[in-house]
Design a protein that fits this description.
By secondary structure, the protein is mainly α. Helices cover 71% and strands 1% of the residues. A two-stranded antiparallel ribbon has the order 1-2. Helix 4 crosses helix 8. The radius of gyration is 23 Å and the shape is globular.
Length: 275
């Protein structure tokens, strides 16, 4: 390796390290602030490390808001959304990759084009639908709009297309139906992409805030992100307690990501580059 190559590699690592620092720093600041007193959290100019670290903020957060109930609601919504999204994505990806029907590619292209429409543009329509279905202020209202995903279908379709068609025709010759081929052969092969879809969807559902604040009113149906509103009142925001509550909310997803980051990268690369 020449000196120029070493220099380029060093610069790349420095650039990545700087980018990683700016991405991680908000989480570090959140955790550090959660151990500060109210005076330290509002001090100007701010201090980085707490002078007298305390766990009282976490105890206060657990008393102010029923995080046990919020946690259970988040788990229920996340599990339902992940299960339904994976099921629908598997069926849609199989249809667009292995089944031959008129207009298949045009229909899939139209679906892909819908990815350019931001979710905020669909909020009014979704909200009206939920109200007309009399599902307002229910956990079902947090699940229905997220039971399918074009992005996850795209990832899974590309993975399915990378599987040789000869395997599909061989299964048909042996008497297997499309349903049997999908669940007994194709789905086990696509495990890396399925794990990725499940993890990404779980993180998105767990952190969902905008939609929950619109369709949930009662305290018993709030999820963890929405529950952080308990630390905001007319007198102001208790930042130290808010940061403690935010740490409680994001910690499960941080742990999940740290343990499963390789699966996410592998599944996205295989589903996004093949086909």
């Amino acid at each position: 390796m020449t000196k120029s190559d070493k220099l380029k590699k060093t610069l790349v690592y420095i650039f990545l390290a700087i980018g990683a620092f700016f991405m991680i720093f908000p989480f570090i600041w959140m955790i550090i602030t959660s151990f500060k007193t109210g005076f330290e959290a509002n001090r100007v100019p701010p201090t980085f490390l707490p002078e007298n670290p305390t766990f009282n903020n976490y105890l206060t957060a657990l008393k102010v808001a029923p995080f046990g109930r919020y946690f259970l609601n988040s788990v229920i919504v996340t599990i339902c959304c992940v299960a339904l999204t994976m099921f629908n994505s598997i069926l849609a990806a199989f249809s667009f990759s292995k089944l031959k029907f008129p207009g298949r590619d045009i229909l899939f292209a139209l679906l892909i084009s819908m990815m350019m429409i931001p979710f905020e543009m669909l909020i009014i329509t979704n909200y009206t639908t939920i109200v007309k279905m009399k599902l307002y202020d229910t956990l079902i209202a947090l699940i229905i709009p997220f039971v399918s995903s074009i992005f996850y279908t795209y990832i899974l379709r590309n993975f399915f297309m990378s599987v040789p068609d000869s395997l599909y025709y061989s299964a048909k010759v042996d008497g297997a139906s499309d349903w049997q081929y999908l669940w007994e052969i194709l789905v086990p092969i696509a495990k890396p992409s399925l794990v990725t879809i499940g993890l990404l969807n779980a993180i998105a559902c767990w952190n969902s805030f905008l939609w929950s604040i619109l369709v949930i009113n009662s305290q018993q149906n709030r999820t963890l992100p929405f529950g952080l509103f308990a630390f905001t009142n007319e007198t102001g925001i208790r930042y130290e307690v808010l940061m403690a509550g935010a740490t409680i909310v994001v910690l499960p997803m941080i742990i999940l990501f740290l343990f499963c980051r390789k699966n996410i990268v592998t599944g996205v690369s295989k589903g996004g580059l093949k086909g």
